[in-house]
Amino acid sequence: MIETSELLMMLVLLLIIGGIAGVIAGLLGVGGGIILVPAFYFAFEYLGYDSIHLMQICLATSLATIIITSIRSVQAHHRKNAVDWSIIKKWTLSISLGAIVGVIFAARLSSSALMIIFGVLGICVGLYLSFGKVDWRISDEMPKGFKRIFTAVILGFGSVLMGIGGGSFGVPMMTLFNVPIHRAIATASAFGFAIALPSVIGFLFLKIPIEARPPLMIGSINLLAFSVIVFMTFLTTPIGVKIAHSMDPKPLKRIFGIFVLVMALNILRKAIWN
User: Fold this and answer.
1) Which of 19, 108, 96 is nearest to 63 (CA)?
2) Could you give the CA distance from residue 48 to residue 18 in angstroms, rounded to a whole number?
3) 3-class SS letters over 221-259
4) Where are the domains of the chain?
5) Reported pTM
6) d(C-alpha 181, C-alpha 61), whole Å
7) Which of 12, 53, 92, 102 gives the lowest tally of CB atoms within 10 Å of its CB?
8) What does the pLDDT look like over 223-250, one tens digit per residue?
9) Which tens digit of pLDDT belongs to each residue from 186-218?
């Protein structure tokens, strides 16, 4: 039997998490997943649902929210003619393949192993947000042939293991290959859908033992968290966008990068020493 007080506590925590994630997404142009996964983890742990399956729940629920948010984002960017559909057509299949492989790996790993992976990759994202520059270049054009397939598979694979969409890895990757930053952000939103849809289908079939499950689960996805986060990000993302247009977001992006670094290091600490 689900306790009313338990549901209320979950609801309050999720409302706060969703509100913050939405503002950050609108303000800095980064996906909410980098915030949602650790926030879900510590919220569910606080509520007493710590188990070897907790990270799977966090990854799956974060990716489920990305299906909705990426559709809205692609529609908005498409109206401004910012999405590079030629990149989408060439990269989507391989990205989705990498995402499927990521789900298979995530299903077989413990929470501690997934936390270590999240921590290491989170450090990389935090360093880029803190110190990366949009004028860094590896090449003047996007990878082709086998290099494109390999890069896309790794992008999808790594994104699933962090529970994130296309922004945190896709935007830096595309700008390094000479895609303009506004077009990279728009195109990466479509990457998010290619990552999230096949991975969520996979996570729906990953059953979590009853004793380790928070209330209102389907497969590995927490329906309450999914619903509240989608609702709150819908409300608060425009607030972040409005703030971004009224000030220079670059210093805030650096501060957020440092926050991601601290958060990733804390996840690593918890995985290794707890």
Assistant:
1) 96
2) 20
3) EEHHHHHHHHHHHHHHHHHHHHHHHHCCCHHHHHHHHHH
4) 4-273
5) 0.90
6) 28
7) 12
8) 999 999 999 988 887 787 677 667 766 7
9) 888 889 899 999 999 999 999 888 887 888 899
